[in-house]
């Protein structure tokens, strides 16, 4: 189990034990980290992850609170974060993406209307320089969906969308826990976009392969660390 997972489990246990309930405020970060025997950084990452899925509510200048979710939903949400990357079936979806999506990207470099390619640039621009992880993942899903649609093959586009959606949680967790992933993802999207603009199918396909393989390699390393 990773250090961040340890922190998530510790917060979860406080709720299970009744020490924290919906609407309760968490102790000060320094105090809670010391009490749980965790670094402040790992505790901070856990809070970020749990706030992303609305288990915790971080109020600037006020503190961090447990949400008013029903206890059963609260536990399900925490399990969602902690358990998903222990299920290696997501690797099979990433492997399939790595095979299928570059082909769709190559086709899009030939068939996608230039107006639609330019719209991809506007999609990336709308994120700004410092998007949140959830904004990045939503944009990522839309970016790849549009490219697959641009392939001109409806069956292939549907397949890509299905595979992409099944790896969304892995991409979210990577964004939360891997340093520099936001900048790397934006840079890789920009490179793919340029290949589409220049009508370079082989380049676009290769860039898509590298882009998807990055998530797959990260998850493989994460699963090895968990064992």
UniProtKB/TrEMBL annotation:
Keywords: DNA-binding, Transcription, Transcription regulation. PROSITE patterns: HTH_GNTR. The keyword DNA-binding applies. SUPFAM superfamilies: GntR ligand-binding domain-like (SSF48008), Winged helix' DNA-binding domain (SSF46785). Coiled coil: none annotated. Residues 1-69 form the HTH gntR-type domain. It comes from the Bacteria. The keyword Transcription applies. This is FadR/GntR family transcriptional regulator.
């Amino acid at each position: 189990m990773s250090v961040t997972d340890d922190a998530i489990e510790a917060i979860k246990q406080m709720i299970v034990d009744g020490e924290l309930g919906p609407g309760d405020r968490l102790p000060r970060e320094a105090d809670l980290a010391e009490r749980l025997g965790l670094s402040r950084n790992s505790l901070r990452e856990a809070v970020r992850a749990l706030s992303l899925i609305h288990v915790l509510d971080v109020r600037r200048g006020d503190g961090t609170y447990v949400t008013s979710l029903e206890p059963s939903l609260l536990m399900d949400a925490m399990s969602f974060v902690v358990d998903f990357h222990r299920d290696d079936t997501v690797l099979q979806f990433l492997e399939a993406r790595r095979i299928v999506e570059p082909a769709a990207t190559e086709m899009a470099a030939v068939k996608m209307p230039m107006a639609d390619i330019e719209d991809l640039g506007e999609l990336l621009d709308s994120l700004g320089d410092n998007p949140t992880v959830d904004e990045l993942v939503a944009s990522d899903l839309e970016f790849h969906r549009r490219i697959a649609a641009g392939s001109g093959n409806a069956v292939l586009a549907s397949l890509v969308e299905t595979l992409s959606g099944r790896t969304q949680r892995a991409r979210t967790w990577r964004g939360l826990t891997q340093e520099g992933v936001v900048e790397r993802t934006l840079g890789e999207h920009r490179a793919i976009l340029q290949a589409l603009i220049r009508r370079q199918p082989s380049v676009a396909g290769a860039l898509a392969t590298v882009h998807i393989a990055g998530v797959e390699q990260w998850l493989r390393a994460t699963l090895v660390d968990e064992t």
